[in-house]
User: Fold these one by one.
Assistant:
Number 1:
Amino acid sequence: MESINLQLIPHNMEDCIYLDHAASTPCLPEVVDAMMPFFTQYPGNPGSVVHGAGKFAARAVKDSRETIASVLAAAPHEIFFTSGATEAINMAIKGIALSAGKGHLITCATEHSAVLQSCRSLESRGFRLTVMPVDENGSITPNLLEASIAKDTLLVAIMHANNETGVIHNLQPIGEICNRYGIPFVCDATQTIGKTPFLPSDFGIDCCCFAAHKFYGPKGIGALYFNTSGRVTRLLPQIEGGAQESGLRSGTLHVAGIVGMATALSTIENQAGSFRLFLENCAYFENRLTAMQGIILNGSSVLRVPGITSASFRFLEGGPLLASLNTKLCVTGGSSCSSGSGKPSHVLTAMGHGPQQAMSGIRFSPGLHTSRADIERALSHIEQCVAQLREESQTWKMFQKGSIKPVPSWFHPLDV
Ligand code: PLP
């Protein structure tokens, strides 16, 4: 078998400014230190509690579960470990729906593909699906949600912060509607947990999904918060086997990952100083970016999570823009999953953008360790790329000469 030669991939992190923290973050040193012994020194399987090594691993899992639960103001038995947010989402949505056997599901057009595809897969198996529209800011209208509820609605799956735009859904009215009608509320909080305080019980959430690699923990580990004394009486397990995680998710637990996730969450919680700097840097970046000509900040008039800035560039094509930006940066067009698909972003399309604007949406995602100097370098590179590409754009020249009206916002279908 051929070995992988990473040298073949042009990827010098010293020369490149990483602005893709919404896709994944580096592990904090504390996280790596906490995990390392579980790779090299402690081989125990937490299921093998008949000997010391197994008991030690089980203890590490128990402590980590307690730490995560306490950050979320949940009980430890309400935290179920998974391989990431995608699995937790599938576990919740399919688990609820398939326990019922048939019925109606409600979700929203701007959800992550893990939610949309889980729902569509159920739709292909006979479940009815309502996909809620959003307005130009990416927000849903609670009255529309209420009007969509049917007698057999099994769940409402609405995310907290959107992964492409950072737009935060106001979950209060959604939780209240779910509560009023007794419908389980599933929430994908992958872009929120670890970035801003979030307690699922504040919104009456029954199932909440998240992943460690979004908050400076390792990849390959996530969790489902499942309010076991709430409206969901049963989740049909999607992975069967040795009945780990109370039978809900079989398979040997990723002990190092679990320890890493708990360490990341508790460390991040206590980093108020670097978080303040991060917020200042994000605001500075956004202010400077939006001061550039012909740039539209998506979801600009609603609450957004820090660290996600989605901007569309008028009169520029997404592909060449992304390629040009990524000679010195690491950014994506929309989500990391759809980046490179050549399709317009489903999120920006749902917000009413025309194809050009939905294709030229770029997600800039600074992180805790992005310095002001990185931001300055990134901004000057963005300015250069945009100026160069616009130099070649006929529509931009017409716009500048006044032959194209300066339509104010997102609404204009083809941006000309
Ligand atoms: N949900 C949201 C909002 C996300 O941003 C992501 C990852 O990008 C996921 C779900 C899926 O997470 P994972 O890749 O860890 O399964």
Note: The two ends are 52 Å apart (CA to CA).
Number 2:
Amino acid sequence: MKIFCVGLNYKEHIAEMKHAAFPESPVIFMKPPTALLKNGQSFFYPDFSSDVHYEGEIVLRVCKNGKKIDKKFAHKYYDAFTLGFDFTARDLQAEQKSKGWPWEIAKGFDGSAFIGDFIPLVSNKIISFSILKNKEIVQQGDTSMLLFSFDEIVSYISKFFTLQQGDLIYTGTPKGVGAVKIGDVLEGFVEDKLLVSCTIK
Ligand code: MG
């Protein structure tokens, strides 16, 4: 199982990260399977960072194997989604970026890929979601705000990597990312349905 992530896929998040330009193609990075945590598990604050951020995102689940998938067929390759958190050690990421080095240690560490419960995906229906920290809304997004659509992302990833059933794709975060501290509770809703809940320990 592979975990793909898209960076910089919502315009207002690109602005808050102080990037001058929008990417011309999806920005892809990966997390290892050991990064995965699910509803019912807790995220333990790592000792190598003092600035861990949540990034609430829609996560797609790949339902069949494929490579070099044409955009017009891409919708056949995912059939379910949930909300998840792309936990990021922002201090390590800034340090790695400043040196021009890969940022895996900031993005792929143990527990950095939290996911909720999957629900079937109804194609062409706009998905609206909210992320709450300690019961206050901190992020809101919907799929009309995506710079690259699900189909564009799937097609692009499959140029380079064979997609396999069960692979996960984090599709990017809207604006409102922020730090977490021990004791915080993060929740993600699609409309009024709670899909993901994570306590920071
Ligand atoms: Mg992210």
Note: The mean pLDDT is 96.
